[in-house]
Model the fold of this input.
Amino acid sequence: MTGSRSMCRRHLTAAAASMLMLACRGQASHEAAGPQPSGDPQPSASPPPSGSPQPPVTPQPGPASSIVVSFKLDPRLQGGTYGGDVWVSPPTYVGATAQDTVEARALAVDANGQPTNDSPDWIASDPDMITVTPGPATEVTIAVKRAGKSQLHVTSPGLAKDLLVKATSAGGAVVQVEISQ
Done:
């Protein structure tokens, strides 16, 4: 009986690790999945630096070379537990059913992917269909008022990115919002 319990625990641990990796899109470390089996070496901590502590050097960002747009995942799509806000940046964002507002943010980044101090502007090509309301920092709320297709222009000095917004409706209410980058 004890052997089958041990085998069951190993399968559950492996399954939990697999689920964690899927949930974190491969960004989870194996330490979070639990202790390593005995016999495997544990990672050792690096020794503390000698001498006086040095403040970290923060490189200054270069000029903006692209705009990165990300969307806040609707909490209904995250499952039954609260894990905090999840921001995603897929080629096409598909909102939850009956989600007619989408929280988004845009960052102007340099060639190394470091954010710059530029704050992108959002311009709706059809304000009767889409409104964009500024939020904190670089965040905005995109409200889709009716079904159809429209574009959002995200601009920063010397840069621009166009987003295609598609919305479908049923019974007069927006049912599905899709935003392609």
Q: What stands out?
A: Residues 2-31 form one domain. The chain has two domains: 2-31, 66-180. The longest helix spans residues 2-23. The beta strands are 66-72, 87-88, 92-94, 101-109, 121-124, 130-134, 139-144, 148-156, 159-170, 173-180.
